[in-house]
Every structure is written in C-alpha cells, then in structure tokens.
Amino acid sequence: MDEKEFKIKLKLNTIAFVIATAGTLCFPQILNLKENTLGFTNSIFSVFVWLLCIYAVRWSLQTIDWQDRRGWRIAGILSFLFTTAMLFGVRLDAVGNVDFKDWRLWVSLPVLACLFTILVRKFWNFLGGIEERKHRLAEHIRLPVTPAKAVKYVDVLTFGFMLLCWLPVLLAVYPGFFVYDAQEEWLQVASRNFTTHHPLVHVLLLGGIVCAVHKVTDSYNLGIACYMTVQMLIVSGCFTYLLVFMRRRKVAKGVRIASLVYFAFFPVIVMFTLCSAKDTIFTAALLMLLLALIDLGSDSGRFFASRNQMALFVLSALAMMLFRKNGVYAFAVMALILLLYVNKKFYSGKTIRDSHEKAQRPYLRKMALLLAIIFASYFMINSVLILALHAKNEENQEILTVPIQQLARTYKFNPEAFDPEDVAALHAVLPEEALVLYNPKLSDPVKVHFRNNVYAANKTRYAKLWLKIGLRKPLSYINAWLMNSYGFWYPDTVIDVYSGNTVFTFTYDESSYFGYEVEEPGYRDSKIPWLDKAYRKLSLEISQEKVPIYSMLYSPGGIFWGIAFVFAYMLYRKKYHIVVPYLMVLIVWLTVILGPTYLPRYVLIFWFGIPLFAAMLLEEL
C-alpha cells in the first residue's frame, strides 16, 4: 500500500468513525424510550449499533460516486424528511408535544440525516447493480408465450381463488364488518333523510342493498352480507386486473404469485375487503387509476389511441371522486400535473416510449377533454343526487378539522391567548362543553358539536379569530396538527385514537387499528368462532406490533416511508413514467394528513398497492 492509498483509507476510516459515533450518540433521540431509561445507553446493544454503523458507513463511502450531486440531493432531502419525522414522532408519541426549544432535537437532525443519506445512496447503488444484472440476464432468456385461452383460464382461477380465500373469513365475521358510519349511511336510506356528510353514491349503494334485501328476506344480516359480497367481487376484479397488468408488463412470475398470495391472505386486505367503509371501493378505484397513469407515462401515444385505457382512466378517476371527498381535491391537483406533463412533455430520454412523437398538441387536447368529462360527470352526478334526494348540505366541520383542533388545543393549554371577546366568539361556534372534550389524536369529540349555522352566518369573523390566535401561539397550532396526523408518517405509532370509546359491543382499549364491529341493525353471527377471535385480536390488540419487522407491514407510517423511498429512487433513476402514479398516492396522503385522525382506512392504498410498488422497485414497468 503506497502513501496515497494509506491516506485515503485513513481519511475514510476517520470519517466513518466520526459519523458512526455521532449517529450512535444521537440514535436514542429517535427511539421511543421512557425518560431516564438505560435501555439503550447502558446496554451492549449500543456497542453493536456503533460497530455496525462504522462498518456500514465505511463500506458505503468506499463505493459511492461522490460526483453524483443530483443523487446526493435527492437522498439528502429524503433522509432529512425521514429524520425529522422520526425526531418529531417519538416526542409526539411519548409526551404529546414537540418541544422546539430542545437542543437535542436540532443537534440530532443533521447528524442522523447525514448518516441516513450515506446509507440510502449506497442502497440505491446496490439496487442499480441488481437492475443492470437483471437486464443482462433478460437478453439471454426468452420466455415462452402462454396461449390466450390458458391466460383467460388463469385469470378466472385467480379471481375465484381470492373469493374462495375470503369466504371463510366472511363466514367467521358474518355478516361482515358493518362499521365506520355504516349505521348512519343505512339510516339515510331507511328514513329517506339524506345529507351530503357521506358520499351519496356510497350511501345509496350500501343502504340500498341492505334495505332491498331486508325487504325481501326480513334479514338485515343477509342484506349486509350481500353488500359485502358485491364489494368482494369488485375488489377481486380490481386485484385480478392488477395481476393481468403485471403479466402484460412482464413482471416476474414469482412476484405475481407472491402478490396473489398476499391479496388472498394478508389480514389488512381481507379486513377491509369485508368492511362496509367507503374507503375500500375508493381505494380499488385509486389502484385502477394508478395503472392508467402508468400506461399514460409509458406510452402516451398508445394510451390516447386506446379507448379501453382512456375509459379506465375516466371511470377510475370518477369513481374515486364519487366515493371520497378528498378524492376530488387530490384529483384536482393531479389534473394540473397531467396537463403540465402532456404540454411540456417532461418525460424525456429513454424513459418514455412514445409511439407518436409529433402528436403532443393533440394529446393536450385529448387530456383536457378527458379531464373535462371526469369533472363534468362528477358534478352532474353529485348535483342530480343532491336535488333528487333533497340532501341537506349544511356541514363545514369536515373541511375545518385542523382549525377546530388548533383552536381547541390552544384554548385548553394556552387560554391566556384568548381575549374575552375571543372567548365569546369561540364559544358561539364551539361551546365550552365541547372544548373540554379535546382529544389530541381525534377531532370527532369536538367537531361533532361545531355549530355550522353560526359559522356560516359570519365566516370572516372566525377566519380572523383563527388567524389571530395562530399568530399568538403558532407552536400550539403546529403541535395540534402534528398530533392529529403523526400516525401517517411516524412508523412506530400504535393506532389507539379511539381508546376508551364505547361502541355497540365493546370498548376500545390498547388498539383501535380496525373497527371490529357490526353496527345495528346487524349483529355478529360467527360461523367459525376461532377465526373470528383471530381477527378481533388483530383489530383491537397490539399483538402484531410486538413482532419485529413484521409489525411494519401494519404501520401506515412505516409503509409510507417505504413508498417515499421508492419514489425518490425512481426520481433518481429518472423513471418519470413511474413518478406520476406515485405523485397521485402522495397527493392523496397530503389530503388525509389534514383529516380528523390517523387510521389505516384513510391510507388503504398503502396496502392495496404494495404489490404494485414492489413491482415498480424490482421490475421496470
């Protein structure tokens, strides 16, 4: 070894030692440890972490391309955001508050962000090497062509297999999970008294099936089971189409088989397939929209030449908007991005395989026409339903969830911020008895008492009140929003937002991961009690959270960062045709972090989309 090599190695070892040591010292700041605990600091485990960090950082620094500034920027932004989420999340989970004056937070942020950036860059290099070897191997392998009849036979079997696997669970939890506002939606149909609080399409579908079957059979349970069956058919059809899409894109057979097994047996998939919440059909439509966006990005010429692909795009976007209101906001933002894509054509180089290079302007007109059809259809259907059903449209609290929580939190912890006239204005729209019910993780106890008529009479007054108090106590506002949403971006969160709430047949305790319930007029009539107990345990106990690594498959925050990692990697590799579908997912995620609480059902696309996200990472779609 010459002197130059020795100096380089010494420099790398020194940098690795410094970063690893600093990272290990800051590591407890992202661990949910009790105050003054010695679980990490006074433990041999910390030595193992330190040695592993030294090895990992040194190994990474030896092989990373230091001239790749773009890669460093993308990895740095991802790592900074992840580190911030971990540092904030652990404090919110432990004490319900981020102390922005805590010097340990601001020292740990750059140190851990630097450590994670190096590790992310190394892992991206590793993934790039796998991809290159896969392409070289593919050049020497010719896959046999499956006959068309055999393909159709396989698709029918796939569709039936999922239904067959879900059927025992339906019998176990019979008539299904009739929960999450199900009773309220059914009552609207049964009483013919409609509001726009819930999407009217879902209200009519759910309540209509239950009421119609009850009228014929005199059984509400059978009506609920019929709705679950219809939903099972819809979801199984969407999953089958996804697997067909993956086959058409030449995704490896092993990945497709693993995806089928996942869809058939993974508890989160099964629970929500058998759940009456509108989120299930919304998410199935969103999944189909992602596939349409991939087709659009991969070959825009073929997309605009195919009536089937354009129809899938229109119908999936329309269904998504009709089944959840945040779908309207999300797709409105996405529409602007799609117009920008078609107009500017920022898909460049080898990424896009456009079969009609000179057709950019016609593409813009066609995209504008498709978007116009989607939005016009949505507003027409919604308006017709509101008029035909005489639905009341007087509620504002859903869109004001975050401001309501911010005012309630500030009133509870910083009452000095309110002048006497501010208190009077606040009590006019949120009475005292509502404000004392403030729950940092759930807006429902307060917002249910929100006086819409008072607010509607003078919206400007309350906008000024919100702004005035926010300028006085900005950190209180920030913490109120963070506490309401941190389960969507902090991986170690235990979903316990309903803890202490009593419903029809139980009281939520340590977990409210899933609403294991059959609301009236239905009732649980299990045909397979032992399987019913297993799903009850998954829903209401923290059993799965006690298993390392496996627990992350149930964590909204954990899966979110997995998706963010793949998104950043695709951005780094300039696979822009994959970036657009991810943008749709991230936009939907942005709408739910402004919602009433954090529950898996709001980000169900995380689980429905796992096979697609994995294929995006492992294969070139």
List the topology elements.
Elements: H1 3-26, H2 44-63, H3 69-95, H4 103-138, H5 148-172, H6 182-191, H7 200-217, H8 220-248, H9 253-265, H10 267-273, H11 279-298, H12 300-305, H13 307-323, H14 325-344, H15 360-389, H16 401-413, H17 420-429, H18 432-435, H19 444-447, H20 452-457, H21 459-472, H22 474-485, H23 529-540, H24 556-572, H25 576-592, H26 605-608, H27 610-618
- What's the β-strand tally? 0
Q: Percent of residues in helical segments?
A: 55-70%
Low-confidence stretches: 138-143, 346-359
Q: What is the residue-averaged pLDDT?
A: 88
- Evaluate the radius of gyration: 26 Å
Largest sheet properties: none
* SS content category: mainly alpha
Dominant shape? globular
H and E order:
HHHHHHHHHHHHHHHHHHHHHHHHHHH
Q: Give the termini separation.
A: 46 Å
Tally of individual helices: 27
The percentage of residues in β strands lies in under 5%
Summed up:
With 621 residues, the chain is mainly alpha-helical. 68% of the residues lie in helices and 0% in strands.
Please describe what this structure looks like:
The protein contains 27 helices and no strands. The protein is mostly helical and 621 residues long. The longest helix is centred in the first third of the chain and has 36 residues, at 103-138.
